[in-house]
């Protein structure tokens, strides 16, 4: 069942698009009523014939290019790691994709406005209206799919960033514990009298012993003088 569903979602629509293309060639555009944002998005030098056709084709191409950027961002997100941080490249590409999606939404809205203006003016037959509506719906569906894919990539990227931060914190905690368990040895040797061995031999002379020595010296001089 899954294989059948996958096959049906990728059915050959060549004949349908050929029919739509033939319809586009017959459509007379109205350049004087073209929304300004379309002129700004695609340039001021817009031809008078088949405006809807040309604008829809450019929007479709731009959606395809944006989808390629989203694929690149997805690959960068998967390859990023704590030792291979590509945050700057990710941020730059993310900003470009956001700008593209915003511009595409505006252009697609203006394309829909142009279509409604032509339908209201009675320039299209029932078949033409059907084909043009199918084109707009297809572009909207593609843009929605690209937007959803972009949101999924951003969600994955956010999870990866949190995971990287947790790993950094874990490594930092382990390093701190190693430092506490194995402190660096001191390079300064303690004084001999602070050593645990040879306490009786290495104790510094006390003030009492120094005083006794002075008294002994005085007594020795007295004895020598008396003998003389």
- Under CATH at level 1, the class of the domain at 31-181 stands as Mainly Alpha
Outline = rod-shaped
Oligomer: single chain
CATH architect. name of the domain at 31-181: Orthogonal Bundle
Q: Give the mean pLDDT.
A: 71
What is the CATH homologous superfamily assignment of the domain at 31-181? Ribosome-recycling factor
Structural Rg:
43 Å
Low-confidence stretches: 1-9, 27-49
Order of helices and strands: HHHHHHHH
Sheet with most strands = none
Beta-strand residue percentage: under 5%
How far is the first residue's CA from the last residue's CA?
Answer: 131 Å
**What is the share of helical residues?**
over 70%
Q: How many strand segments?
A: 0
Instruction: Count the DSSP helices.
Output: 8
SSE class: mainly alpha
